[in-house]
Amino acid sequence: MKMPPLHALMCFESAARLMSIKAAAEELSVTSSAVSQQIAKLENFTSTRLFIRSPRRLELTIEGRIYMRAIRPAFSQIAEATQHLMNEGKANKVTVSCTSGFAIQWLLPRLPAFEKANPGVEVQISTTNRQVDLLSEGIDFAIRHGAGNYPGLTSEVLVNDNLLPVCSPRLLAAESELSGPRDVAKYPLLHDEHRLDWALWFHTLGIDDVKSDTGPIFIDSNGVIEAAIAGRGIALVRRALVREELRSGLLINPLKISLHSPIAYYLVYEESALLQKISRRFRDWISAAAATEE
Fold first, then answer.
1. CA atoms lying within 13 Å on the CB side of residue 199
2. Shortest CA distance to 243 belongs to which of 225, 224, 219?
3. Nearest CA to 98 among 70, 77, 126?
4. Is the dihedral of CA 44, 47, 53, 59 positive or negative?
């Protein structure tokens, strides 16, 4: 694999990002002529025209646009890693992305232990259901629910997953007892926006002739759990998110059934994030906190 001249690559990236030879020259502290020469050098190296030049404007060719999209992430990674390295020992903030359900039910109750051990450190939690771009959005760690396949990122199992039906004990006190899994369908089924878990649960237990897609729908697991506590129906939830509610008796697992899920909660991050000492401390702390519950 043949690497292009790195200075020529830097000049191309800067000019393509700023769409100006002059602006690129100012950014790189060289002359406009030097930038143009380096771009020409890269075009000769690749045998490809990268820019369309005119007196009034600079425009990327189709090949130039494709090439810029391909190399831009590498420049972002270099900039991010360098920033982390420069901040080593100085950073006092860790930014974490996760769903609101995981934040409220799992992370926030445990966070005071980390803050007590690391006074002055701010943990900023960004809640979302989407997969964020860690580099471009300035996120140190993401907690994702999935199979662990996150290309280009480091992922570590945080919490293994088990699905179990839960409800308020008041719900069963007001209705007839549950004698088996099939009876669950007689109650309102509470869903998050994906609505797939109940169908999977019934199918795994060999029950395919019940209607599992009816009942109230909530935007996330936090809404589902709160509705179950309020006695609005039976929720199918991840054990990691309701440990305290089960311990306190706010919720019960009426059938004593828990099914292992093929997916889990993963701690996901760019390896460069660990250049910061405080990020390494957070990674070690959250991994240890999760391990105590296995």
1. 7
2. 225
3. 126
4. negative
CATH of the domain at 70: 1.10.10.10
Q: How many CB atoms lie within 10 A of CB 33?
A: 10
Whether 171 and 216 map to the same domain: the answer is yes
pLDDT class of 176 with cuts at 50, 70, 90: low
**Chain centroid to CA 168: how far?**
31
pTM of the entire predicted model: 0.67
Residue 116 buriedness (CB in 10 A; 0-12 / 13-18 / 19+): exposed
Q: How many CB atoms lie within 10 A of CB 171?
A: 21
The DSSP symbol for 252 reads B
pLDDT tens digits for range 19-67: 999 999 999 999 999 999 999 999 999 999 999 988 778 999 999 999 9
Q: Residues 182-208: what's their mean pLDDT?
A: 86
Instruction: Give the structural domain span for 118.
Output: 93-158+264-291
Q: Could you tell me if 135 and 268 lie in one domain?
A: yes
117 closest CA partner among 276, 284, 273, 260: 284
Helix (H) or strand (E) holding 224: helix 221-229
Task: Say if residue 42 is in the same domain as residue 76.
Answer: yes
Cα–Cα distance for residue pair 97/142, rounded to 1 Å: 5
